[in-house]
Amino acid sequence: MKRCSIIIHSVTGNNYIIASHLKSILEESGIETRLYRVEDADLHIFANKLETSNEYYEELQDLPVVTNEKLTKSNVIVLGCPTYFANMSAEMKTFIDGTIDLYESDALEGKHFACFTSCGGGIEDGQESLASMRRWAEQMKMIEVDAADLIHVSGEEGRIRPSLDFGKDIEEFASSLMAVLN
Ligand SMILES: Cc1cc2nc3c(=O)[nH]c(=O)nc-3n(C[C@H](O)[C@H](O)[C@H](O)COP(=O)(O)O)c2cc1C
């Protein structure tokens, strides 16, 4: 059976909400789906400062941390992280930099890739963030899934959670993934 791995960084929970919903949709369609997080050494500090961060802190901490081996076992790799200064977050970048061995061995060549982001308000910033994740996939010789940009807008301190309408965008995104997973 083909496997989809969703790898997230999330501080105030929005990327986690998107990833959880995506995972449920894929699993309902019988697709083996794993959800991992990247390391985040100071998540507890934000959880103490921001209500939005505290809300999903335990659930985030309970996710297994991704490893390069998990990537090699996946047919589709989906990255999701906050947009920070019109880029992917530093925590996601640190994870990506740790995949250099996989780059050298072309271990991810031919696997499918997709990504999403949550940003405070700047859709253009979100697009830049997606572009930064796509550059990694391109260098890894992965094949991008044909899907519309999935960019959530969260407002101040990430308070605007993904809406029911945004849920429909996630469903469409999931359908694009299913097209290569079935
Ligand atoms: C350090 C930092 C930088 C940010 N930079 C941007 C930015 O450039 N553009 C933007 O629209 N939002 C920016 N944001 C807002 C986050 O992208 C937004 O809150 C997002 O929903 C967080 O995702 P999460 O809830 O999964 O942690 C920034 C937030 C932080 C903490």
Walk me through the structure:
The protein has 182 residues and is of the alpha/beta class. The protein has one domain: Flavodoxin domain (Rossmann fold, 3-Layer(aba) Sandwich), CATH 3.40.50. It is built from 9 helices and 6 strands, in the order βαβααααβααβαββα. Strands 1, 2, 3, 4, 5 and 6 form a 6-stranded parallel sheet that branches. Helix 8 links the parallel strand 4 and strand 5. It is globular and about 40 Å long. The chain starts with a strand and ends with a helix. The structure holds flavin mononucleotide. The site of flavin mononucleotide (FMN) has 19 residues, from helix 1 and strand 4.
Report the portion of residues in β strands: 15-25%
Classification by helices and strands: alpha/beta
Name the ligand types: flavin mononucleotide
- Inertia-based shape: globular
Order of helices and strands: EHEHHHHEHHEHEEH
CATH homologous superfamily title: Flavodoxin domain
